Amino acid sequence: MANEPQISADLYKRTFTNGLWRENPVFRLLLGMCPTLAVTAAVRPALTMGLCVIFVLLCSNIVVSLMRNLLKPHLRILMFALTISTFVTIADLFLKAYQPTMSEALGPYVPLIIVNCIIICRAEACASKNVLTVSIVDALGMGAGFTLTLCVLAGVRELLSTGKVFEIQVMPDAFVPWAAMGMPVGAFVALGILLAIVNVVSKPRT
Amino acid sequence: MDKIRYFISQSWLLIVASFCFGLLLAVTDAALSPRIEQNRIDKLNRLVKTLIPEAEHFKPLDEQIEIRTFRGEKEQVTVYKAVGTSGERVGWSFNAAGTGFQDTIELVVAVDSDFQKLKGFRCLSSNETPGFGDQIKSADFRAQFEGAPASELSLVTTGDREKVDSEIVAITGATISSEAVVDIINTYVTQVKEKMHKKGLVSDGK
User: Is residue B143 assigned to a domain?
Assistant: First the structure.
């Protein structure tokens, strides 16, 4: 890419870590709340959801970035939606074919990635304005941030609701599982507490 | 003419992309759909095999059986004949569905070869409250059905779970879910049994 402006390694690093912490999609931008609340009852579905989002985000960022100069401003959202829904459907079919149990456990939440605002947000805010390489790094950073956050939330909920993490017993036998943590109410409570912690930790330093 | 030219110039990307993405989806679907269908059949077979271990394969009856659900709707039920290793009939199985506490409960029910006794049920899909209603999947609740008479079952709140008879002891805190399972089984088993007798597929109780 000789004619593209020089991109420093520092920019890549900043773009990647942006998604992990400074602009973490769940904790900082509060995007993608639907899967965050719905699939975090256990770590395994949360991880699967995170990987699906990384795949879709990466593919849509690549496609959008490649055609960014051809996009007509008033038709761009339509193009984003078309791109995203294609890749989500592919991810859904792959899950159904190779991970049928997981696909059943996730239920409608895989097709619902289509309306996950993280993906359309990255297409609009990053991929449609940046070169291919930056868009790819951004997709990986944002996707990794989303996946990690989901896994942390799911880890807390799975531990408290079953005493297990990744289906491996970690709590002593005397531990009484909190069934409520596995239910929707547990998702709201756990997310609220985690958000509060993150807000305290990342208080703007003056 | 100018209008058409304007229209094309604005939307050519959208049209081209739609075709490309459509093609991509068609290819993926064609490649994966046999596997997805196979997964569904495998799952059903696996579940029914745990209920009728002596079955070697399952053969659907040529004619579907029409029953009335408790909402009064007509439904076509495909009954599968379980065939043992030497070709003898070892049981019957069919899918049954009804309204649970939160969502539809789908069961697969197995009955012995003379439609006299239940061989049990397994849950295909349900969305009952974790920790309470989802105990309909638990082994001790299911065990009450294994060997119970294939006629009207009744639900009681107290009783001996170990005793296998037409009285099913409800799960504490999940009466509605327990009732739903009993209702689904009653609705399907009694009607399928009656129709099968009429068709002469099973002999009257000897």
Answer: yes
> Does the residue B79 lie in any domain?
yes
Contact (CB<8Å) A83/B129? no
Q: Is residue B156 part of a domain?
A: yes
Instruction: Give the pair of three-digit tokens for residue B7.
Output: 């229209």
What is the reported pTM? 0.77
Q: Is B9 exposed, middle or buried, given 0-12, 13-18 or 19+ CB atoms closer than 10 A?
A: exposed
Are B39 and A93 within 8 A, CB to CB? no
Q: Can you read off the two tokens belonging to residue B138?
A: 């638990």
Taking the Cβ of residue B25 and every Cβ of chain A, the question of whether any pair is shorter than 8 Å is answered with yes
Q: What is the pLDDT along chain A (206 residues), one digit of tens a residue?
A: 445 556 788 888 888 888 888 888 888 888 888 889 989 989 999 999 999 999 999 999 999 999 999 888 888 999 999 999 999 999 999 999 999 989 888 888 898 899 888 999 999 999 998 899 999 999 999 999 999 999 999 999 999 988 888 888 888 888 888 888 888 899 999 999 999 999 898 877 66
Closest CA to B17 of A66, A134, A112, A115: A66
B10 and A96 within 8 Å at the Cβ level: the answer is: no
- Kindly state whether B166 is in contact with chain A, defined as any CB-CB distance less than 8 angstroms: no
Give the domain extent around B190. 50-199
Strand B89-99 with B65-68, pairing: unpaired
Q: How many domains does one find in chain B?
A: 1
CB contact under 8 A, A82 and B35: no
Which residues on chain A are in Cβ contact (under 8 Å) with B35?
97-98
Residue at B18 is within a domain: no
What residues does each domain of chain A span?
10-198
Using CB atoms, which residue from B11, B24, B132 is nearest to A86?
A: B24
Question: Chain B residues with CB inside 8 Å of A79's CB?
Answer: 13-14, 17
Polymer length of chain A: 206
